[in-house]
Amino acid sequence: MTFLFYIFAALAIVGGIGVVLNRNPVSSAFAMIVSFLGLAALYIQLDAYLVGTLQILVYAGAIMVLFLFIIMLLDIKSEEGRQFGVFSTAGAVVVAGGMLLIVAKVLKNFEAGEKALTPLKGAAAETTDVSAIGELLFTTYWFPVQVIGMLLLVATVGVVVLSKRELR
Amino acid sequence: MPAYALEIIVFSLGLVLLLVDAFAKLEDKRSLAWLGMLGLVVVFGLLFKVEPRAADDANVFWRFYSDSRMSLFFKGIAILSTILVLAMAIDYRGLIEKFTAPAEKKAHPQAGLGEFFALPVFACAGLMCMASATNLVSIFVSLEAVTITFYVMVAYMRRNVGSLEAGVKYLILGALSTGFLVYGFAWLYGITGSMDLAEIGAALKSGDVSPTAALFAFSLILVALGFKVGAVPFQMWIPDVYQGAPTPITAFLSVGSKAAGFIVLLRLSAVFLGSEAVAGQVAMAFAVVAGLTLIVGNLTAIPQSNFKRLLAYSSIAHAGFLLTALAAAPRKLEAGQLSSATVVAFYLGAYLLMTLLAFLVVGLVRVHRDSEEIEAYRGLGKSSPFLALALLIAMASLAGVPLTAGFFGKFFVFQLAIQGGHWWLVTLAAIGAGAGFYYYLKVVAAMYWDDPTGAAAKAAAIPVSALTRAAVVTLIVLIVIAGFAPRMILGLIG
Are B392 and B444 in contact (CB under 8 A)? Predict the structure, then answer.
């Protein structure tokens, strides 16, 4: 299983690097799908079947299709010819490298490998079974779900107001 | 009536506004703003009728929600600022109309105005949820609900390049900070196994949790919330976004969004400061960020010539004072000592009053003089003495002149820092406050002393509607009351 973990982790990382390095936005988007597939496999390895499936259905499927649509509607040529200055590249490398160093240092000092983590609250079924998760969403977690409902309403109103050609 | 009924009422009010806008063919959409304000005034009154949670109320809902005095106080802040923002939006509607639908102006003169009055009400509901959130899940969803509403409102003048630029900058940096926040929350959940702040606090206190991991989670959360409240070095977006956004929204952003960031920061810092293993480093991190924010915010405000930009830097500077209060949080409260939560709540209350008063005047001057430069305020003392007086009081309070609300806000912060023995923070705060006197009073000087007899002074007076006049008078009275009797406000916080 560890062997599989390394394969899929490498897949996710290679995909991520591809998103950043590709000049063509369409290739970037496809690299992102590769990265999502690697992540989904990792979730499934962790017994989080629902999250893994959602990762593929929602992210790799729906959201990436939307991405490609938007890229199609935009002018790709101008993006391909764009050059980044030395200053901004150096800045990005320093920030990303610094973040990587910090995470590496934290993981080194953190006994996650040697010591079992605190078990999560709730039965195992609550985190794997779809119907149990659905039930939790509409019982224990009804309040956050309602707030998300409001969030979506506001987002819809915002999209209409900001993008409609002729407001009435 | 339980506390959560208020959120339900405010959310329904927002829905009603949207529906009325969609189905009733209103001649003048200003009535929507009036309806919104009326509803919010009623809700503000109901705030004093809230009954605490019944002892036998076992709804799972209370895992996500607290109805403490502090939450009610912050709900009050949210409602009051939304009412004033709607009042401001009425005066500002001309500019909104100009930039939402200029080509079709004849066919639909008030297109897009209804949503502009409804969105702040939804933001208010989100802010109220956040004031009560006691669980990582409810904190996150309500914070996002508020932030997404703000993305829309900042870019609302969609045919204005400045507003669009502000919207894009705010969206990208906001999304980045959300990423940090989720990563921090994930670590916190991973190491403690709980989403509930009380349980997380207990787990951190027990010492079973690796301090390295806890500190890493804390620093990620600090980065994210640093973006939200405008702490240095995460303040880059503030001047551009504040300048580009419609003025009523800038006011809302600087008050509502900052208050929201600080409630979350207060709740989470209490969790971390309660654990012996990490409390020292957490307080240190707050102190460093507070010191940087005080210096950068105050010193970069000095050369500003655009008033809205000046207020943006002033908002960074005030974040510095608020963070100083968090950094100086006493480990053990002695009798008669104010907790840092109380100090922060009082400061935010005072900040709300004076900032909204300043923005009310800025909005009116923008509409009638078509400028936001400090130069446009020349001779205002002669041409519009009422607005000049209002701005004078707002500036005096922002600078911290005695007998204003702002003075006691700063006073309590200094008191806390001195009691905690944070002398270098006290020094930086004193330098910041000194610089504040210079740049706030620069505006006052422009109004009263620069060229008091020239052409600017003879310009026509800026018309002030009865509603704005009432709002200005109320704010002035509240600033002065809080400046004379701060104990009254402290009593409300509990």
Answer: yes
Number of domains within chain A: 2
Q: Which of A82, A113, A145 is the last residue of a domain?
A: A82
Digit-coded pLDDT (tens) for B150-197: 999 999 988 888 898 999 999 999 999 999 999 999 999 888 888 899
CA distance B190 to chain A (A): 8
In a domain, A36, yes or no: yes
A119 inside domain: no
Q: In the numeric block, which tokens belong to residue A130?
A: 């779809």
Contact B65 A117 (CB under 8 A): no
> Does residue A168 belong to the interface with chain B, where contact is any CB pair within 8 Å?
yes
Asked if B343 and B411 touch (Cβ cutoff 8 Å), the reply is no
Cis before B402 (ω within 30)? no
A25 within domain boundaries? yes
Which structural domain, as residue segments, surrounds residue A42? 1-82
Residue A16 belongs to a domain: yes
- What residue spans define the domains of chain B? 290-494
Using a CB-CB cut-off of 8 Å, the residues of chain A touching B216 are 102-103, 106
Q: Spell out where B330-411 has E strands.
A: none
Across B3-114, the runs of DSSP E, i.e. the strands, are none
ipTM of the complex: 0.89
The string of pLDDT tens digits covering residues B96-109 is: 888 876 655 566 66
Cβ B149–A158 below 8 Å, yes or no? yes
